Amino acid sequence: MTRIVLATSFALLVATAAFAQDSWDFADEDEAAATWVDDVKAQASELVMFGAFATLALVGFFRKSEKLKWLTMGLAVVYLGFARSQLISVVNIFSLTSWNLPVFRYNLAWYFFALFTVITTILWGRLYCGRICAFGSLTQLMDKVVPARLRVEVPRRIERYAAPIKYFLLGATVLYFIVTKDISIYRYVEPFWMFSLTASTGLWVGLAVLLIATIFVRNLYCRFLCPVGAFLGILSTLTVFRIKRWSECNSCTICEKKCEWGAIRGPKIIASECVRCDDCERLYMDQKKCPHWLILARKKAQARA
Questions:
Q1: Is 269 helix (H, G, I), strand (E, B) or coil?
Q2: Contact call for residues 274 and 268 (beta carbons, < 8 A)
Q3: Would you state the pLDDT for residue 5?
């Protein structure tokens, strides 16, 4: 009798366990691993948005449209700055030195952004600095609304001595990282963290001083202090499509006086300092201001006479 009771109890326990397992409906196999298609879909919106922004930037650049340039810079501040907090940083240069780059598959938009910056720099120069960098765009927009009477024009001689400072900062910062592996140094050499709205009181005070100084000296940080600008300046020595110069540029100084970046020195354009802002190129196309066209028009008039 006891054996019958034990056998019956054991059968009930087995049946109960089987019922419980079926009622939970556990999957027989693990969930399938994400595919490349899944990863691309997850990042599709970022890829499309940056693709649209990059297209706008290039259209404005090729058309030499001042309105599109300012629109691009406004979007750079809002979209790449405050919305995405995505800028080329000295941290990315640190990653290159240690070859510790983000995983390509999960960072497609960042690679799109980085490759766009490198390729456009090699093809045309520091296009990134001139209209895509969110901080540079912010300071240029500030300059647009600041009364001209407040600006202090840096003498050309001082400007030439000050421009190399950014190259020293680039070398010193990278060397510091290689020796210490301390990535936090970036917060003290570039103000791009401002778009995340997170920093210490000391950093915010330093940023305020920098922006106030920028009111008086246009593009102060970009021209003299930016390590990323220095890195892209070095890369721009490889630029394929440079700004053409007329023979009249040997004696004319209109563009040199117009250049806000100190990139034109006599007949020569310093590629590492030029940000392809289009100002001089628009002057080249102005047949009422550029001496090249005025001389041609005079020759035609003389030939007719």
A1: strand
A2: no
A3: 39
Contact in structure between 262 and 159 (CB atoms under 8 Å): yes
Q: Which two tokens stand for residue 301?
A: 């008039």
Torsion of CA 223, 225, 231, 232, to 10 degrees: -20
> What pLDDT is attached to residue 32?
62
User: Which pair of tokens denotes residue 78?
Assistant: 């809002």
Spans of all domains in the chain:
45-241, 245-305
Residue keyed to tokens 């409906």:
25
Backbone angles phi, psi at 21, to 5 degrees: -65, -40
Would you state the pLDDT for residue 288? 87
* Residues 295 and 196: beta-carbon distance below 8 Å: no
**Which residues touch 219 (CB under 8 Å, ≥6 apart)?**
136, 139, 140, 143, 260, 261
Q: Which residue positions in the chain have pLDDT lower than 70?
A: 1-32
| Reported pTM | 0.83
List the alpha helices (DSSP H) in the chain.
Answer: 2-24, 36-63, 66-75, 90-98, 108-124, 127-131, 134-145, 156-162, 165-180, 186-189, 201-216, 220-224, 227-235, 254-258, 279-285, 291-304
Task: Report which of 53, 105, 118, 48 is spatially closest to residue 81, judged by C-alpha positions.
Answer: 53
What one-character DSSP code corresponds to residue 96? H
Q: What is the per-residue pLDDT for 23?
A: 44
Two tokens at 270?
A: 């310093």
* pLDDT value of position 57: 96
How many whole angstroms separate alpha carbon 164 and alpha carbon 235? 15
Q: How confident is the model over 9-21, as pLDDT tens digits? A: 444 444 444 444 4
What is the number of other CB atoms lying within 10 angstroms of the CB of residue 127?
A: 25
